[in-house]
Amino acid sequence: MNDTAIIEAQGLSRTFHLGRRMSVAALDDVSCVLRAGTCLAVVGESGSGKSTLARVIVGLESADAGTVRIGDAEVTPTTARRQLRERAKLVQMVFQDPQGSLNRSLPVSATIDEMLRAHRPDLDRAGRRARVLELFAEVGLTERHADAKPAALSGGQKQRVAIARALAAEPRVIVLDEAVSALDVSVQAQVLDLLKQLREEHGLSYLFITHDLSVVRDIADDVVVMRKGRIIERGTVGEILDAPQQPYTKLLIASAPRPGWKPQRGLRAALLEE
Ligand SMILES: Nc1ncnc2c1ncn2[C@@H]1O[C@H](COP(=O)(O)OP(=O)(O)OP(=O)(O)O)[C@@H](O)[C@H]1O
């Protein structure tokens, strides 16, 4: 772990206009830093702007104002193939639903093969097959899984394929957008363990987007808390989870599911509407 920034977002703003009178400030002057080799969790309720931040950072969405740097490069939205390929080597994204990158009529290995075709022109067909199997082994899957169609795999296994696909580009950063949110708690823990192991082995950095604070302690080093497009609190994972300053952060922590947890509906609604 070190203090060099691998991602630096400065003053990002993004407003969506929904007709003539309605607009939503999804990002309002947001700045944050992901330190190389660490995991920065971005937490907040649904609609607080987390995904928009992730999308702007990887260049899938444009900002109205502000800048993003990944490594030495400034990120701007692009559709140019060469630039997209270069960016893919810097940053990959894993989404909540792995289905999006899988073709239901092809073995799941096809999605990795496609990545390798783009990023490893040095490999021939046999070389790509060997690399596919290596990547499957890295995420705890076997040749049998590689040759299966998506429908034959569980949610956790499909998410492992999505992680292997991201690794195939050999990126420096992976943005995980609610990547474990749809998984059962025990599967969630296994995928988090895998992510931690891969981070060590590959020197990766993670931007970890989640509405669920119960998973944050396990993986994050730093946390930013978003509310209505703004960062309202930031700190180390210990500072945020053990000594939160803002009522909203306290509420998010109180609402995180854990054994014996009871939802505090009245309080929650009151604070969120504030
Ligand atoms: N393409 C879009 N067009 C219009 N409004 C959008 C668009 N994308 C996001 N928004 C709005 O911007 C706000 C922030 O959305 P965003 O998806 O970034 O939040 P989030 O915290 O990731 O929530 P969720 O987890 O539900 O996706 C929301 O009010 C959302 O409706």
TrEMBL record:
- On the tree of life, the source organism's domain of life is Bacteria
Q: Per the record's keyword annotation, is Ubl conjugation included, yes or no?
A: no
**In the record, what terms sit under GO molecular function?**
ATP binding
Q: What positions does the domain ABC transporter occupy?
A: 7-253
Sorted UniProt keywords: ATP-binding, Nucleotide-binding, Transport
Q: Which SUPFAM superfamilies match?
A: P-loop containing nucleoside triphosphate hydrolases (SSF52540)
Question: Cross-referenced CDD domains, in alphabetical order?
Answer: ABC_NikE_OppD_transporters
Among InterPro entries, the record links this protein to: AAA+_ATPase, ABC_transp_ATP-bind, ABC_transporter-like_ATP-bd, ABC_transporter-like_CS, P-loop_NTPase
Provide the protein name. ATP-binding cassette domain-containing protein
